[in-house]
Every structure is written in structure tokens, then in C-alpha cells.
């Protein structure tokens, strides 16, 4: 298992930034449905690049993309305002409760009103940084040396980091993959399920804000402290999106 997780953690896709998000984005919550449809189309195009290939590497890529697309199509995208994001990040206990992450559900997609932070995952931009503008996750376990989609008894969540307005600079994928999408996939990291752990500091790991957000969101869902409102909007790829209207304080 350790070898698989190490390989996942250091995976890199190179991108070039066109926009760092700034105080907000070029979209709003009313566009959440179309953003999800764009992601689904892009993952389908990405998977099609492996069609007809029988090598083990292509098979692994297909497995990851099938799992990713399954999450995009299965869940209602969740829009988080800047205020809700700050509240959820500020309520993470240390150490965390082992039930926090499972409360997120096995699959999810979060879209952020404001960029969460900058990360080197994907080594994007001239300075090797990209903003975190969304998170997508699916359930996984390691069997032997293989990472598999596991809805029954997952060992971890595989979390994909989504970033605004990036295009591939040096990538094995054609630029057309993400050409029509407002978000692209920088790469992924693993979070263990059912165990207590202390989230990293931002000084030690630039993915710390994303981990804090997921832990805070899971704790709030577990305790029933979120009130949702439907956003609406036509979507081709799954349930209609929703926004967190209220975070009830602990």
C-alpha cells in the first residue's frame, strides 16, 4: 500500500496559469451545473485517449478516470461561499475525529466562490503555483499494488484538486482535453478514512487548507449543522447543484 500512496502523492501534471482567481472567479453559483458538465466532458475526452491501449499504465489511468467520472455524474455539486469556507476551516478539531471524513460521503464535488490557496500540485504557472478552486473525491482501497474504486469498505478518499483557467504546458494529454472547461484537474492526493490524525500546517503542506476544509465539512455534515439551498440550473451530467446557505456554529 505504501508504494501506491507514494506514487499517487508525487504525481505531477504540468500546467500554465492564465488566471489566479484573485478575490473571486469569472463565474458564480448559478453556473455550477455547467461547470460540472464541462468537467464530465473533459474526463470523458481524457479517458478516450486510452482507448485501444492494453498496457498496465493505460489500464490504471482508465480506472482512475472511470472513478473520477462516476463521482462527477453521481453527486450534486456543492457551492461554498468564502464565508462558509472560512467557518468550516475554523472548526476542525485536533486531532480529528475518525468519523469526520466518512461523513462527507464516498463521492463529492465542491466548487469554491474564492480560491482556497495556492498549491505546487501540478507545478502550474511561472512560479509553479496554482489556485485551489474545487475538490472532487471518490472512495478507494489498495489491493496488492493496485488502487481500486471501493464503495463497500474504502480505506481512503482520493481527492482531486481542481484549478481555474489552466492549460497543459507539458502534458501527455492533448490541449483540447480541457479547452472548453473552466476548471482542470491538477492531480490527486489520498486521505485515510476511519482514523484520527492531526491535519498538517500550511507551512508544512500547501494542501493543508483543502484538508482542513474537507475535515470541517465532514464534521458539520456529521453533526447536521449545514442548511442547503438548491441552486438549480440545467445539467446533463447528474443531480442539480446546491449551496450551503447556513453553517450552524458548534
What do these coordinates show?
This protein has 250 residues and is α+β, with helices and mostly antiparallel strands. The chain has one domain. The chain has 5 helices and 12 strands. The strands form 3 sheets. Strands 2, 3, 6, 7, 8, 10, 11 and 12 form an 8-stranded mixed β-sheet that branches. It has a two-stranded antiparallel sheet with strand order 1-9. The longest helix has 19 residues. 44% of the residues are buried. The N terminus is likely disordered.
Task: Report helical residue fraction.
Answer: 25-40%
How would you sum up the global shape? globular
Relative strand content: 15-25%
Number of domains: 1
Which residue ranges are poorly predicted, with pLDDT under 50 across at least 5 consecutive positions? 1-23
What value does the average pLDDT take? 82
Please give the radius of gyration in angstroms: 17 Å
Q: CA-to-CA gap between the ends? A: 36 Å
Order of helices and strands: HEHHEHEEEEEEEEHEE
Number of helices: 5
Largest sheet: 8 strands, mixed
Structural class: alpha+beta
* Secondary structure: number of strands: 12
Short descriptors:
about 250 residues, alpha+beta, 8-stranded mixed beta sheet, two-stranded antiparallel sheet, 5 helices, globular, disordered N terminus
List the helices and strands and how they pair.
Layout (H helix, E strand, L loop, with lengths): L1 H8 L5 E3 L14 H17 L7 H19 L3 E3 L1 H8 L18 E5 L5 E2 L10 E2 L2 E10 L2 E4 L6 E9 L1 E3 L14 E10 L15 H15 L3 E5 L11 E6 L3
Parallel strand pairs: 2-3, 2-12
Antiparallel strand pairs: 1-9, 3-6, 4-5, 6-7, 6-8, 8-10, 11-12
Helix pairs in contact: 2-3, 4-5
